[in-house]
Amino acid sequence: MLYLVLNVVADFGLAQKTATKSYLRAAGTKNYAPYEAYTQNRMMTESDVWSIGVIIIEVITGEHPFEGQSQEETINNIKTGKFKPLPNYIQQEMKLILEKMINLDYTKRPTVKELLESETMQLVGMIEKSKEQKESEQKEFEQEKEQMNKKVNELEIKVRSLEIENQREKERADLAEQEKQKALSERYQEKRRTDTEHAQVIRLTDEVIRLTAEVTNLNQLLQSVPSSLRTITYQSIIPDSEHVKQQDNKIIRTNKGWRSTVTFNPAISSGIVRFGGFLEKHPTSNFSIGIADSSAFFGSNEGPHEGENGKKTVRYLKNGNLQHNEDYIKVNSPIEENKTVAMEVHLYDKNSSFTITQFENVLYSSAKGIRGQIIAEWGERWWD
């Protein structure tokens, strides 16, 4: 190890060989030249020991032991042997050897042999060998590390590839799950539609049953209503045109006169006839509709019950009573406006009207068999 250091010193040009092995002439860098180079102008083996000591101290501490503010001050420190105290972290034996190596008196400096035989230098050699071994191991470690990094990179690539594949697999699984949920949702919606349609079928079936029952009831009611044989073309007989006027099938009471009885031709000599219509704007109870014998005659301002006509008419009054021969039978409901009622018409209130909706022959009477009915004979006295 020391041999290498000596070679370095030689490379610095601190000494050159002369004719003899013992003496060298002064040459090289001044900061690494010992005391004798300045005072005696010569270099020797002990001079190399001094230079080596300076270099070792500078390597350990990071500064030249004789360094001053200038090169001249540094040289003066070398000439006077004034060096900086070595730090305490340097082992004592090593410190003593280094201080001897830079001693001002070259005769007190250790020889190369003494340096090589010293335990400190041997320890330094071991340290250097250990360092070399460590560097070799470090190099091997770096190589192994490089190989390991290479393998790690390869593994990372494989892991990344697996992660990508795993992500794709997850996406495929998610897509499959979405398709599954979609299918379940469609099945659920289809079931709901089926249930709704089934409920609709049940509801419609119930509705059909209900409507069928209603149709049956209506058919039964229709069977009780006389069927029409033919519509009768009628002609109204108005006693006074100032009291009553006709617009199409509507008989209108004017605001003139006291009362007016309107009859209709033809006179019915056989069969059953339905004559009906509805009343408007007639609030009093003096309205009546009824039938009259063909021999009855009604003049201006005459009612159907006056004189001999009372015996020739049957009147259905607005309050629901039936009148014949000036007698009353209280059996019917009152006549309401805009509701159909049938018989001959007697308009009393001014500006009222009666619209004819039916005048026809029928096969049989719808009044037959009505609960609570009263049978009254024409021409006889009617009592309630």
UniProtKB/TrEMBL annotation:
One of its GO terms (biological process) is mitotic DNA damage checkpoint signaling. It comes from Streblomastix strix. It comes from the Eukaryota. GO terms for cellular component: cytoplasm; nucleus. This is Protein kinase domain-containing protein. Signal peptide: none annotated. SUPFAM superfamilies: Protein kinase-like (PK-like) (SSF56112). GO terms for molecular function: ATP binding; protein serine/threonine kinase activity. Residues 171-192 are annotated as: Disordered. Residues 1-121 form the Protein kinase domain.
